[in-house]
Specification:
Blueprint lengths: L1 E9 L6 H9 L6 E2 L11 E2 L6 H8 L9 H17 L9 E6 L5 H9 L12 H10 L4 E5 L5 H15 L4 E8 L3 H9 L23 E9 H7 L5 E3 L8
Parallel strand pairs: 4-5, 4-6
Antiparallel strand pairs: 1-7, 1-8, 2-3, 6-7
Length: 245
Amino acid sequence: MIVVTGTGIVSAIGTNTSEVARALLADTNGIAPVRFLETQHRQMPVGEVKLSNEDLAQRLGVPCTAQTSRTMLLGTLALREALAMAGISSEQLADVALVSGTTVADMDCAERCFDAAQSCNSLGDCGRSTEEMVQHIGPFGFVTTCSTACSSAANAFILGANLLRSGRFKQVVVGGTECLSRFHFNGFRSLMILDGEPCRPFDDTRAGLNLGEGAAFVVLETAENAAQRGVEALAELSGWGNACD
């Protein structure tokens, strides 16, 4: 049996698990006009995390420069919370795997380089934001990135579960992180599926969606390992699936 022993989340309605839970119970709406994304379409409603890059970096105690990815900052904050809740210290990470999902990773940094007509040679692939999270958290025993668009974090769960089933690891951290970027905005605008008002799923007058950003990670481990550590099982991962249709 695979169980969840830790969670961490950063979203438009909260910057940790308890904040988000309270916001959901209170029916809080996190949709608002663009505040931090550098775009000319500032009137568009989005689900933006209510912290600047500087605010996020200050919470984490890390530097914030033009090459600091918001995707990395959001992910590191959620990852730290998940590990802390599960009672996993930095000294224990060598026996833990990390599987992180993302679509565009540090695209926000690439866009700033483009705006400044600077070389972006220092920017890497989608794994770069994951590698930067690891630099701030500690050395995991295994690190990889899933980048399969909207299914990235779902595939991270599947890979993490299979790592546990294989017996290679007894604990894995899975999830995903993604900041808003102009790449997202212009891509979805070209598909003509962005709503200029707060979205209304299942409504007769629905006109599209609102983009959002955030990060969430959970610690998965075998039920036997959780029992041996004396930690509470918050939930069970009872199944998963992946289809390409």
